[in-house]
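Supplementary Methods, section 5.1.

A reviewer requested that the exact input to the structure prediction be made available. We therefore reproduce it here, unchanged from the version used in the analyses.
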Amino acid sequence: MAAATTPADGRSAWDPASRTQIASWTLYDFGSSAFNTLMVTFIFHWYFVNVVAADTASGTVIWRRAVMISALVVAILMPILGAAADYGGRKKQFLVGFALMSIAATVALFFVG
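The structure derived from this sequence is encoded token-by-token as follows.
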């Protein structure tokens, strides 16, 4: 069985990652997890329920439905997008693209309400 090669650097997909690569991905995951925990669980939930949907009696229900729908979208799309990034050797491009989308969405929260 021939090893798949990554077009970006020509390395085999099965070559071990360097210590720098492992540290970089670990720090990214740590920062991303902390950001998501703070923003989605605490800050934006409170803001949505008390400011955006304050005039409705069911702000919490709307929030729960939005989180449920987004979780379903993630559960359906992430395996497909993850396989595409791995197979195509475009992990960094996917990372940068989704990081920019996350930054843009966070900045757009300024205009909500």
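The mean pLDDT is 81. These observations are discussed further in the main text.
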